[in-house]
């Protein structure tokens, strides 16, 4: 079961964080780009191979300290078929290092199309009678609740069948999220509160040994007051928290997403780790070619800052 595996790894590494690999070619050091371009050309293939080498080195640097990776699908789709190949290779490489893989695609559609999305990322694809294959085979996927239960149910079915997980968008970290998510219903509840109640209902049959469900939620670090409310509503939901670091979320902000047992949330940082070598904190200590060491240092700092904030909660 995904959620039990996640909690086990968080406990093992004493680290409630996930490293986001949302790579753009601009983030990749010159030496890696030059080697890839010389081999494959200055094209989408060259960009994708440079990104894969960048990803591998970051994974090697952080695999022993973090429980999971979060891969934002848009940054792989950006480079076409070659980028999607790198997505698959990155998933396999990260899993080979013992990491859980969360694909951040915010997928959903009507039931039959949602089923296709779920089969691609969580389940299996039918090839012929009695023959099935996995495609991306992530451990979890972010999904959009806007279409209601018939768009969510195919994902829940695959979570149950294959031991996977989903994180449903509840209160996102972007500035304009309130245009829809903060609207009030006729009952006086905000839309994000209603979605949180649905997350509870949808996840009640997938609760694991630690009391958490494999149907989790996405709640941005940039809205700590809303996180307090949502934590009370979704007592059994694990919360994936984007927005830490480059988007402005702090350790003090994210503690509101945790339960009193110190569990219940996993905090994501992407740019602040991938581009740590460019930051004021590390750029004097590490060169561009030592980006992986800087990423490790930043990942350790993030872990320690959050654990310290949790101790003071």
Tell me what the structure shows:
The chain is of the alpha/beta class. The protein has a single domain (2-306), classed as Aldolase class I (TIM Barrel), CATH 3.20.20.70. The chain has 13 helices and ten strands. It has helices spanning 2-13, 30-40, 44-62, 74-77, 80-96, 111-121, 149-162, 178-181, 191-203, 224-233, 251-254, 271-274, 291-311, and strands spanning 17-21, 68-72, 100-107, 125-128, 131-133, 140-143, 165-171, 213-219, 237-241, 265-269. The strands form two sheets. The chain has an eight-stranded parallel barrel with strand order 1-2-3-6-7-8-9-10, surrounded by seven helices. It has a two-stranded antiparallel ribbon with strand order 4-5. The model has no long low-confidence stretch (mean pLDDT 96).
Task: Report the uncertain regions.
Answer: none
CATH architectural designation: Alpha-Beta Barrel
Q: Indicate the CATH topology.
A: TIM Barrel
Broad CATH class = Alpha Beta
Q: How far apart are the first and last residues' alpha carbons, in Å?
A: 29 Å
The CATH homologous superfamily is named: Aldolase class I
Spatial order of the strands forming the largest sheet: 1-2-3-6-7-8-9-10
What pattern of helices and strands is seen along the backbone? HEHHEHHEHEEEHEHHEHEHEHH
**SS content category:** alpha/beta
Taking all Cα atoms into account, the compactness measure Rg is 19 Å
Biggest sheet descriptor:
8 strands, parallel, barrel
Secondary structure layout:
Elements: H1 2-13, E1 17-21, H2 30-40, H3 44-62, E2 68-72, H4 74-77, H5 80-96, E3 100-107, H6 111-121, E4 125-128, E5 131-133, E6 140-143, H7 149-162, E7 165-171, H8 178-181, H9 191-203, E8 213-219, H10 224-233, E9 237-241, H11 251-254, E10 265-269, H12 271-274, H13 291-311
Parallel strand pairs: 1-2, 1-10, 2-3, 3-6, 6-7, 7-8, 8-9, 9-10
Antiparallel strand pairs: 4-5
């Amino acid at each position: 079961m995904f959620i039990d595996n996640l909690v086990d790894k968080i406990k093992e590494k004493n680290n409630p964080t996930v490293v986001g690999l949302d790579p753009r070619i601009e983030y990749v050091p010159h030496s890696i780009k030059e080697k890839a371009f010389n081999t494959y050309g200055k094209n989408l293939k060259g960009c994708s191979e440079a990104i894969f080498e960048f990803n591998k080195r970051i994974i090697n640097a952080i695999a022993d300290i973090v429980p999971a990776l979060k891969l934002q699908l848009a940054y792989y789709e950006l480079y076409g078929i070659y980028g999607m190949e790198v997505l698959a290779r990155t998933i396999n490489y990260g899993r080979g290092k013992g990491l859980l893989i969360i694909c951040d695609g915010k997928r959903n559609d009507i039931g039959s199309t949602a089923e296709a999305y779920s089969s691609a990322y969580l389940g299996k694809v039918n090839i012929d009678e009695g023959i099935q294959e996995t495609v991306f085979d992530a451990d979890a996927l972010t999904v959009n609740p806007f279409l209601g239960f018939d768009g969510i149910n195919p994902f829940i079915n695959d979570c149950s069948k294959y031991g996977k997980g989903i994180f449903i968008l509840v209160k996102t970290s972007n500035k304009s999220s309130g245009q829809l998510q903060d609207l009030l219903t006729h009952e006086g509840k905000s839309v994000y509160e209603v979605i949180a109640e649905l997350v509870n209902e949808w996840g009640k049959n997938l609760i694991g040994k630690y009391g958490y469900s494999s149907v989790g939620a996405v709640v941005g670090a940039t809205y700590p007051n809303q996180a307090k409310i949502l934590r009370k509503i979704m007592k059994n939901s694990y919360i994936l928290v984007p927005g830490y670091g480059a988007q402005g979320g702090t350790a003090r902000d994210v503690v509101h997403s945790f339960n009193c047992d110190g569990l219940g949330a996993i905090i994501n940082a992407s740019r602040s780790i991938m581009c740590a070598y460019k930051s004021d904190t590390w750029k004097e200590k590490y060169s561009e070619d030592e980006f992986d060491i800087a990423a490790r240092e930043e990942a350790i700092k993030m872990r320690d800052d959050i654990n310290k904030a949790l101790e003071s909660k």
